[in-house]
Amino acid sequence: MKKIVSIFFKWLKRIIIAFFILSILSTILFRFIPVPITPLMLIRCVEQIADGKMPKIDKDWKPIDKISSNMVLAVIASEDQKFEEHFGFDIDAIEKAMKQNAKLQKRGKPIKGGSTISQQCAKNVFLFPQRSWIRKGFEVYFTFLIEVFWSKERIMEVYLNVIETGDGIYGAQAAARNFFNKDAIKLTPSEAATIAAVLPNPRRWSAKNPSTYILKRKRWIMRQMSHLNGSVDL
User: Fold this and answer.
1) Nearest to 174 by CA among 125, 130, 228, 183
2) What is the 3-state secondary structure (H, E, C) of 156-209?
């Protein structure tokens, strides 16, 4: 029995060391090369097949200088206004989300997140979309890694290329082509704000046919963009 326990912990130690080495190496690698595919993209393909559809991954990686600064400003305005200031985590936003979620849970409503763009980027690139404390722990770890090894500009670049923007559509370029028939570099403030408005749930809401709620959210994002304009420097 002791021998079995010893072998178990020996292999567990090896697995943990291998995980740390591979996670750090992959983070460094993605600092320089485009992310080819993400766990979420694979999961969505499986879901599409299960629904009797052809799997679809519509994405077109673009460097950040080929993506409109309006798109950068829009996601910062809507998702994470302290993006350039924090080291991956916005403590004030987390505390606010916890207080709001305590009220929402009492009413039986879905809880809301307080994730930064860095956290969302780490989750999209390395993890899977499941709510659990284990996944959250890994999210914290990978967020720390990308903040250490990537620049803020690189985090934004990766985020804008892998984020889900529609059913089978990923990234700013694919969104711009599908919804506005133009390249991401040509997105106007209004178009960028519309894409940003649907990001919390891009399969439920559409940037091409925005609902009244999305139009209202878009107007709010554009006001925030106006306030932030000139203060964002990526």
Assistant:
1) 183
2) HHHHHHHCEEECCEEHHHHHHHHHHCCCHHHCCHHHHHHHHHHCCCCCCCCCCC
Return the CATH number at 44. 1.10.3810.10
In a domain, 172, yes or no: yes
Which residue bears the tokens 């993006």? 83
Residue 88 pLDDT: 82
Sorting pLDDT into bands at 50, 70 and 90, what band is 2? confident
Which residue type is seen at 34?
Answer: P
Task: Please list the helix, strand and coil fractions of the chain in percent, rounded to the nearest 5, in that order.
Answer: 65, 5, 35
Structure-block tokens of residue 106? 């009492």
Residue with tokens 């200088």: 65
- pLDDT (tens digit, 9 = 90+) per residue, 118-160? 999 999 999 988 778 888 899 999 999 999 999 999 999 999 9
Domain of 4, in residue numbers: 1-30
Token digits of residue 19: 């995980």
The rounded mean pLDDT for the chain is: 89
Asked whether residue 12 falls in the same domain as residue 128, the answer is no
51 has a pLDDT exceeding 80? yes
Q: How far is CA 85 from the centre of its chain?
A: 18
User: Do 225 and 73 contact (CB within 8 A), yes or no?
Assistant: yes
Question: Which amino acid would we find at residue 187?
Answer: L
Residue 7 burial (10 A CB sphere; 0-12, 13-18, 19+) = exposed
